[in-house]
Amino acid sequence: MKTSKGFLLLEAILAILIASIAVTTFSTIIKATHENNFQMERKTDQALARHIMKTNNLKKITIHDHEYQDEKNKY
Predict the structure, then answer these.
(1) Which of 39, 38, 44 lies closest to 68, judged by CA?
(2) Which of 21, 31, 56, 57 is 20 to 30 Å apart from 63, CA to CA?
(3) What is the DSSP letter of 58?
(4) pLDDT band at 33 (very low <50, low <70, confident <90, very high)
């Protein structure tokens, strides 16, 4: 009976270890995906701002609470 209890304890420890590794991996993947989406949104907004400023002859535009200025008139 003692070997069975020891085996159950070892099995429980391994299960907790595997679960913690899975949660850590999952959270790391979610964080990286969020950061990637944020960077892509920034690049898309920047390209959209350039296009709108060029086609409408504007010097400034605000997209998603970020102000973009024409690069020629920056200084």
Answers:
(1) 44
(2) 31
(3) -
(4) very high
